[in-house]
Amino acid sequence: MEHYVWGAPVAIDLFTAGLGAAIFMVAVVANLAGGRKYRRISTAGALIAPWPVILGVVLLIIDLGRPGRFWEMILKRAQELNHLESPFIMFKIGSTMSIGIWLVVVFIILSFVYLIVALLAYPFKWAEIFQKVVGVVGVPFALLVTTYTGVLIAASNNVVWNNWLLPVVFVSSAIVAGIAAIVFILAGLQICNPESEIGSDVPKLEILNSRVIVVQLIMVILFIVFGIGSASMRAIIGSAFGLLWWVGVIFLGLVVPLIIGFKGGAKSPHTSLVVSTMVLLGGFYLRYIILIGGQI
What we know:
Elements: H1 8-34, H2 39-48, H3 50-64, H4 67-75, H5 96-120, H6 126-154, H7 166-192, H8 202-227, H9 231-237, H10 242-262, H11 269-293
Helix pairs in contact: 1-2, 1-3, 1-6, 1-7, 1-11, 2-5, 2-7, 3-4, 5-6, 6-7, 7-8, 7-11, 8-10, 10-11
């Protein structure tokens, strides 16, 4: 049986961290661009953004085998000069993982603050302004978290991962998945309450997502072209993971939602629910295949 240094828990963490951060960015953009007009989108995003990131952190802690190891990464007193000296925290400036962990911690805090003020904005006018301020502050951290998920493995000497396009692929994939996650929630709520207008913004999101998918497809193609010389890349798109890659990631996860978006969105919330699920699964499979395939 193959043993991988980084397995499924790490793949899930890479996916959920980028997913939660992207959901946050979509929610903030919706709030800044449309205010109350897109309140359903911004509120749905605010409510779900922290939880995928927390799930990824929990799984990562479990994968470490000893939960204390995670807390040592952020709370143990630094002993080296390139650490931020503090009796409480550890921050290794030259470590991608240390920087990433702190980005995730700060993002989780900001996303919870954003969630609270998004709910307070319903009864209190003053909270609407505060929501915009927290959103603007949080977006750079969210973008850095989505980028970190790609930089973390791209910083290695692995021939597949050490590709400057990998972080771009992960960021574009996270945004596509983030939009799909909000579509999934709104479509599901619409199905549960057919008389409501909860899902009225779904077609707009699907159209928007089709534009982002075009960018992602271009980045994925370039990523493959630049890495096609390695045996691991050929395994990813061929013998080892070819079927899952071309059917699960490319066709069902990108091409189908692309076509639906260009046609003006799905005609029913049930279709939107299914398609958004395929996008989310495709986003996870993309990271899983690249992570595991790179270790073949």
